[in-house]
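Now for a concrete sample entry.
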Amino acid sequence: MAAERITPLRGRLRSRVRLAPYTSWHVGGAADRLFEPENRDDLLAFIAQQPADESLLWIGLGSNLLVRDGGFRGTAIVLYGALEAYSRDSATTLRAEAGVHCARLAKLAERERLAGLGFMAGIPGTIGGALAMNAGAWDGETWGAVQEAEVLYADGSTAWLTPEHFGIAYRAVIPPPDFRGFLGARFRVTADDGSDALRTRESLAQRKATQPVGKPSGGSTFRNPPGDHAARLIEACGLKGHRIGGAVVSARHANFILNEGSASAADIEALIEHIRAVVHERSGVTLVPEVKIVGESIHA
């Protein structure tokens, strides 16, 4: 029997690579392996060659991601810079690959005078991450606009699936069996009379005025509890400006934790847990982290 042919990889595969430069918090230990595919086909070939039980960490812009100081036991795959194609797919849909910055897709919709994706201008991540966590901003959510998503299976095969194939909730998505990752999606749009573009510009101005834009953070740290806002609860507990090591609660927006330059992942995680404990003690509300925390502590 002839040996199975292995497709040569064109991207860059490295061992023991620190993930701090790939996250918006600028912290995190090394992944066992890190793969930067050249393009979509290169990614498919790589996945097809991996063991079914290989742990994968998909990275776009690294926002809403906290990698512990001990690193990630598995393979990190960087999509930003590789899967970056996006275009108008039809009169009523836009298509984007998983590595596309959400703001770029929102900008395309504005140029094409289309409504329905303006909220994506407020998501500091890529389409893949937005699909994985049902990211949202300004009362809009990713899966509310998805017509169908392209998924990748463990054997390297792909399929286009409608939202009914997923369990979708607030900041949470349950994928189907054998799912390995998102490759992209088609989004529904409608003609814009100018009001959607105006709302987007107004929301961006408000975001700039009220959030620590441009500073190392993971984006919103906690999900908003039903009928309330995490930032209000945190501020009511007097936690603005509270710090552990180099991690500090933003004085501008209490639901943001900043790395002032010397923070470790352990500092940030400890601050997250401190906030949760104080808010629960004083309000009875248990805040749920919106950020994904992965990897091992340095002392594990």
